[in-house]
Amino acid sequence: MDRYSPGRRDFLKKMTALGAAGLPVVVPVLGSRPDYLADAAAGFNTGTAYDPAARFEIKVSEVDFRRTRAGRMLMARIYQPAGAGPFPTVLDLHGGAWNAKDRHAEEPMDRALAASGVLVVAIDMTLAPEAPYPACIQDANYGVRWLKLKAASWNGDPSKIGVYGSSSGGHVAELLGMRPRDARYNAIPLPEAPKLDATVAYAAMRSPISNTYARFQNAEEKKRDGMITNNKTFFNPWETIFESNPQQILERHEPVTLVPLLIMQGALDDNVLPAVQEKFAATYKAAGGKCEFHVFEGSEHEWVAKEGPQTDRAREMVKAFIAHQLKT
């Protein structure tokens, strides 16, 4: 059965004809969109003509990503929309307090994005018990360069790579965006394409750890031994909890790259506190960056793990944010 209505089919045929003729393709964003997307509702113009309301069948496959120093093979999970593309491309960085989880952690979000016409590639990252900071940021940095090399083979567009990060993966995403050319993070060579860099176009995040030390203090206050241990395992030596703290990086006025950010924060989150997150968003904007900050009422740290209206809202918000970034 055709997934589009007759009117929608005619519209898509017209858009395809315009694209083939080399003319600009403007696709309206359908349906309700949150806050900052009123302008996107009027239309956007991208080479990939990404429509957040579109629906695609997807194929899921896995490939080897890279081997850690300890010898463990990290894998990449590819969510590929059916079609010729080229599709917007997003690298997914999993959470797990730097000590746990893998490429499967955000599968529902990854599937939702891919079904709208986004190539999503979720990678494993080195876990803290194997190697502390900055090992996982090195994986992510390599991952961006690797994905720029590989995206076209999965019908993705490598020209404007975005990142989706959750919790500690959001911390990695912020460091990746702010320090794309940091020599420590660029330590893993990509011999096939040595000139590719790790710059990203944008980062969308759920509950990112934007202030590493504030989160550690929160864990101490709440006597959460597991969280305290996770911090001490990852930030080794301990001084790196300050060196790699996105909030403090901005407060120290270090030279950084300020990519557009989307931060989605649960109002009931007692892991990453909303007030701490709000302060980071304000500091980022004060430094000259664009940062959309949205609070999800009635939501805890990992609310997107459960189906419901707020999870639906988060998925739509990420899709709309991607559309907005592609048109700018």
The end-to-end distance, rounded to whole angstroms, is 35 Å
**Looking at this structure, what is the CATH superfamily?**
Alpha/Beta hydrolase fold, catalytic domain
CATH topology heading: Rossmann fold
State which percent range the strand residues make up. 15-25%
Strand pairing plus helix content: what structural class?
A: alpha/beta
Number of discrete helical segments: 10
- So what's the CATH class? Alpha Beta
How many domains? The number is 1
- Which quaternary structure do these chains form? single chain
The best one-word shape is globular
Strand arrangement across the biggest beta sheet: 3-4-6-5-7-8-9-10
Low-confidence stretches: 1-48
CATH 2nd-level architecture: 3-Layer(aba) Sandwich
Q: Give a quick account of the main beta sheet: strands, pairing sense, barrel closure.
A: 8 strands, mixed
Overall pLDDT: 88
Share of helix, binned: 25-40%
Order of helices and strands: HEEEEEHEHEHEHHHHEHEH
Overall strand count: 10
Radius of gyration, in angstroms, nearest whole number: 19 Å
